[in-house]
Amino acid sequence: MSARIGADVPPDGPGSPAVGGAEGPDRRIEAVLLASDRLMATEPVASAAATLAAAGVPVVSIPPLPHGEPSAAWQAALQQLWGAGVSPSAVLVVTQDDQAGLRVGTATMGPGSASAPELSPVEDLGALACLLATQVELRRRGEPPAASAPPGWMLTIDGIDPDTERARAAQLTTAAGRIGWNGAPSLTESRVTPMVLAAGVYDGQGADSHLLPGPVPGVSPTEASAATRARRVLDLRGGLVHETFELDGLVTRVVRFASLARPGLLVRRAEWTRACPPPARPLAAPVGELVTDEGTTTGSTWQRTRSGTLGGGIVAAVATARWPSGTPTDGGPIVEDQFTAYVADPSAPPDPEHAAALARQAEELGFDHLLAEHRRQWAHRWAGADVVIEGDDELQLATRFALFHLMSSVSDDGEAAVGARGLTGTGYRGHVFWDADVFVLPFLAATHPPSARAMLEYRVQRLPAALATARSLGRRGARFPWESAHDGRDVTPRSARDRAGRFVSIRTGQLEEHIVADVAWAADTYVAWTGDVDFQRGPGLELLVETARYWASRVRIDPDGDAHIDGVIGPDEYHECVDDNAFTNVMARWNLRRAAELVEAVSPERDVGITSEERHRWRDLAEALVDGFEPDRGIYEQFRGFHDLEPLVMAEIAPRRPIAADLLLGPERVRQAQVVKQADVLMLYHLVPDELRAGTLESNLRFYEPRTAHGSSLSPAIHAALFARAGGLEQAYEALRIASRIDLDDLTATTGGGLHIATMGGLWQALVHGFAGMRPRDGRLQVDPLLPPQWSALEITARFHGSRVTIRCTSQDLHIHAERPIEVLVDGEPQRVGPEGRSFRRQGSVWEPSR
Ligand code: IFM
Q1: Phi first, then psi: what are they for 93, rounded to 5°?
Q2: 439 lines ligand 1 (CB under 6 A)
Q3: Per-residue pLDDT tens for 690-704?
Q4: Which helix (H) or strand (E) holds 120?
Q5: Cα 370 to Cα 263, 300, 337, distances in angstroms
Q6: From ligand 1's centre to the CA of 442, what distance in Å?
Q7: I need a surface site. Which of 384, 484, 522, 754 has the fewest CB within 10 A?
Q8: What does pTM read for this prediction?
Q9: d(C-alpha 735, C-alpha 766), whole Å
Q10: Which of 573, 576, 614, 637 is catalytic?
Q11: Quick check: 378 pLDDT over 70?
C-alpha cells in the first residue's frame, strides 16, 4: 500500500460519521453548548447535562441564538472552549427557540466565525435527553475520541508505505520535552520500530555518546502491511495521534499522546478488533544491545534500560485498563487504555516504584481526565505561539507542524539538552549543536521563556567543562564543544562514512569554534526577548565573560596590530581549516564587545573580578579583528583566499534546492571552489546585523546565495529571512517554502533519522524576523512587516518582556496588541502599545499611525 500525506482530511471509518441529524450524534463529542433560556431548567435535560458534566464533558449554557444567528455569547462560549482545547466540531450545539423549536448540530466553524451552526431538528426533550445520555454511554464504554481539529491543524497520512515509514514515524512523534514517543504504527511494521527517547539521557563515551533508548509501549502483533486501509492523523492543536486501520472489514482505532500536562506520561487508548489483537506484552525492550531489567509491582509492570557507561537509565511502568475484561464473548472489540509513566535519570538508575506510582495515578485519573488536561495545555501553548498565515493553507499547516515539534522537543524546567533531531529520532546520536542555541532557542525565548532558560541551563551546567577544555588547549575562558552530550566535553566523531559510503575525516570538533560565540549569542537573545535581568546579571554574564575571555586568548595579533583567528571551520563546512572566517571573526568581535558592554552596564568591576584593563583589551581586540570586508565590492570575503578559489556558481549548475555539493562534485573540487554549504557570511546579517556595514545585505546576498548549495537543512530558512529583509519577496517565499517542506517531503532523505529541529526554528525566524521584521532592539520590539502577495494576512503571537504581543498585518495595515504596555519601534519611531492596541497604515514605504 502506498502512503499519501495531506492536510485536514477528516478521519473516516465506522464510529466517526457526522454528529447531529434527527437520529442524534453517534460519535463522541467533547463539550455541549446549550443556547436556550429554558433547557437547563427542564427535566430530563437538566439531569442528563449534570451527568455529562460529572463525566468531564463541559456543558455551557448561553441565551438563545437570535434568529439562529451566532451571537456574542456564542462566540465567547466557543472561544472559551477553544481555550480549553475543544474544537468547534467537537461541540454539540443545542438550540431552542419558538420558531424553529429544538435543534442540534455541531459548531462547524471556528471561534470568530460569523457562520451559523448547521442544525437539525430533534423531536422532543426526551429525544434530546437520550442524545446526551448516549454521550455518557460512549464515554463509559471507552469510545476513542475522533480527530476534530479545524482546517490548518491536522496532518493526515493515508496508507502504509514501507519506504517512507521511518520518516512518517518521525513526523508523527509526540513528545513533551522530557520524553518523546515516535509515531511508529501501533501495529507491527518491519521497517520502523517504536522508539522512546529521554532528553539528555545518554549512553556511551566520547564520540560514541548516544541517546539511550527507553522501553516502548508494545504494539499489536498484526502486520501493518495486512491493513487494507490505514489512516493516521496528527492533530497539532491537541497534540494527538489518531490511527485507523481496517483489516478484514474490521476497523481498529487508536488515539495516543505524550501528556503535556504530565511530561513523561504516554497515554494510548485503542479499540482493538479481533482482526487486530492488542499487544501480547504492554512493554517491549528497544532493539539493540542494551542493559535492561524488568519486574512487576502493585498494579503495573515495569521495564528499565540502563546506560552501561554513565549509570543513568530510563524506567517505564505501565498500568492498563481494559473493557470488557477478558475476551469478549460476542467477538466485539476490546478497548484498552495504557498509561505508561517514564522516569529518566542521566546518571543514576531511576526507581521503578516511582514510575509505577505515576502510572497508577494516571490510571486512577482516567483517560478522559488526562485527555482534557493535555488538550488544555496545548491550547495554552498555542495561544502564546501561533503563527497564522492567511491565504496559504499549505504553508500554514507546515508552519504549525514545525511549531508543534519545536514546542514538543524542549522541557521547561531543569536543563534541556536539545539534540539536532529533538526527541524525534536518533540522527547525530542526539548530540547538541549550535542548532539548539541559534535556531531553536529564539523561538522559545519569544514564546515560552522557561524552555529557553532550560536550554541555557544545559550550557551553564557545562561551563566548568568548557573552562577545562579551554585550559587544556592553553587558552583562557570557555571553549564550548561543537557536539555536546552528557558531560560537556566534545563528542564529535573524528571520522564517518559519507552518504556515498566513503570514509571521511571530521574536523568540526576541533575547528568549528564559532559555537563559543553562538552560546553567548543565545544567552543575549534570551535576555533581549524576556528582559530576565537576574539571568543577565548572573549566569548570563558568566557565559558572556568566559566566552569573551576565550576569544581574547584565541586571536593572533600580527605585526601591523591586526587581529586574526586562524584555522577554523565556519558554518560552510565544505572548507576546512580556513583563516579569518568572516562569520567566526565577526561573531567573536560581537562577543568581545557585548561582554565588555554588559560588564560595564550590569556589574561594578569588583563584583565580577574583571579589571578595566581586561575589558579595554576586549574592546581593542574587537576593533583589531579583521572581517574581510572589501569596500570596493561591498562584500565580505568568507575567509582569506576564498576569492581565489574556482569561481563556481552553484545556481548555474544545479537546481535551487538543497544539494549535497560534496557528493555532486566531489569533496576535493568543492574544497577548491567558491561553493558554500549554507549561510556563512550571510548568517551574520541574520544574527548580528549591527556588526556589519550598513546597506551591504543586498550585495552580499547577490554574491553568496547563488554560490550556496543549501547542503545543510539549516540554510533555506535563513535565506528566506534575509531575502525578505532585502525586499526580495519572491525569492524569500521560495526559500521559505523549501524550508517548510524539508521534513514533510523528506527533501534531504534524512528525515528517517528524525526531524530537523533547527530548520523548524529557522522557519519561525524567517516568518518573524524576516517577513514580520520583528526583533528586539535596545529594549524595544521592532516591527517592520513585508508580505508576499500570496498571503492576505500574517498574524504572530509572541511574548516580549513578560507581555503577550500579537501583531497582525496585511500588505497595507498593521495592528499591534500587547497584554501589558511595551515599547515598539515602527519605522524607527518608538511607540507605546498596550491592551488597547495600535494600528498603522502603509503610506508609500512607511507605516503611519492610523489612530
Ligand atoms: O549544526 C549542523 C551544521 O551546521 C551542518 N551539519 C549538520 C549539523 C547538525 O544539524
Answers
A1: -100, 130
A2: no
A3: 999 999 999 999 999
A4: strand 118-121
A5: 12, 18, 11
A6: 17
A7: 384
A8: 0.96
A9: 9
A10: 573
A11: yes
